[in-house]
Amino acid sequence: MDGEKVTIEKLLNNGFGLARNKEGRVMFVPDALPGEVFLVVKTVKRKGVIWADQTERLEQSPIREETFPCGHFPSCGGCRMLHVRSESEMDLKISFLKDVLSRIGKINDPQILPETFAMINSRIRGKFHVGQDGTLGFKGPRAENIISIEQCSVIPEAVTAMLPQLKAFVKEVHFIGDLYFATEATGQKPVWEFRGSLPQGLHPKKAFAQFNYDGGFLYKDSTGRERFRKGYPMVRHQWNGLRAQLSPSSFFQSNPASWPVFLRQVKAFVEEHKLKNVWDVHAGVGFLSSGVQCRGLYCSEPDKTAFSELKRLFGHNKRYSLHLGSAESLLGNDIFPLKKMDGAILDPPRAGLSDKLRNWLKEDGPPWLLYFSCDMASFSRDLADLNPSYQLHSPILAMNLNPGTLRLETGCVLKKMV
């Protein structure tokens, strides 16, 4: 077989191995591990990057796993690291965290504390996709197609058990869109949120009368408008003495085993630095806020559904001041006494902090920040931009919340430099 031999230099945080062709140009190789040698038979070029499209592995890494707990690997884009031995996965993730921190964050050899969790049934919320042809499943590695899912190791068994029924239903009514799920912390009692479109002329009530399910579910059209519900389409969770009610599409940390770790970090942040007034910048429904004990806690949240639950949980407590709106909408006005803040908790979306918020932090931000991130690249970019106004005060906590996937949650404390 003709082709070009390449050696994998490192694994990137997008799940592809990095190699160089004979001209020295970077090439991305799928299903590859550091040190392996591949014969690349065919390549494609997208957005100026060379991708190996047809390969044969010639030399294998000792950390490669030969048997997988899921028959959909590697076609499914969810668990992209099942080809790595479990005992080596965390080391590999830390290596590409350090790589991203060095390249983007300009932070060399940071101290990193690993925290890992079990893989099986570790994710109690998620989202399936339903394509034009009725295929229900997860997107592939390049998000170009939907892979039909029969079983999944990381989601609760109660969700997997309903897949045949769900597949039959979405095909019968020609539903197209996304299907959110969430369960109790034990993985039981799934609730569902269908968000997408039905054929023109088919009334939601008539369509969903065919979905025979005793639990709660709702349907929202593609604009997000609720059109139908049955039962109680919310899950109840308990953390830090609070009882929260969340919809399937609400954001919350998907692995219940990680909740005590996050709350421990919040508690230590407030206590060790003797903080009196703290701004929970991306408060959500108040999960992180529940771990704060100080004189004044200020919470901002732009999502109306999340804010409604935030208000239900904390609206009666005089220590809490709540604002429906983005963090950016608070800058430059007097809704919150931002100049009195001595600490802030940051838990931004995958894209990281906005330019406006970063600029405010550098100029007028509080002395201490606790920053959680679900994306290594945006995390590194934010640290680079905040420097030298803020510098790392603690080791970076690397949390492998969903083993088998590329995801790695990070957390750190940043100190304002005078």
Count structural domains: 3
Instruction: Report the mean per-residue pLDDT as an integer.
Output: 93
Helix content: 10-25%
Main sheet summary: 9 strands, mixed
CATH architecture of the largest domain: 3-Layer(aba) Sandwich
The CATH homologous superfamily name of the largest domain equals Vaccinia Virus protein VP39
Distance between the termini: 62 Å
Per the principal axes of the C-alpha atoms, what is the gross shape?
globular
The tally of helices reads 8
Low-confidence residue ranges? none
> Count of DSSP E strands?
24
Secondary-structure class: alpha/beta
Write a brief structural summary.
By secondary structure, this protein is α/β, with parallel strands linked by helices.
Please, could you describe this protein's structure?
The model has no long low-confidence stretch (mean pLDDT 93). It is globular, with a radius of gyration of 23 Å. With 418 residues, it is α/β, with parallel strands linked by helices. A hairpin with a 2-residue loop joins strand 15 (235-239) and strand 16 (242-246). The protein folds into three domains: 1-62, OB fold (Dihydrolipoamide Acetyltransferase, E2P) (Beta Barrel), CATH 2.40.50.140; 125-236, OB fold (Dihydrolipoamide Acetyltransferase, E2P), CATH 2.40.50.1070; 255-416, 3-Layer(aba) Sandwich (Rossmann fold), CATH 3.40.50. The termini are far apart. The protein is built from eight helices and 24 strands. The strands form four sheets. Strands 7, 17, 18, 19, 20, 21, 22, 23 and 24 form a nine-stranded mixed beta sheet that branches.
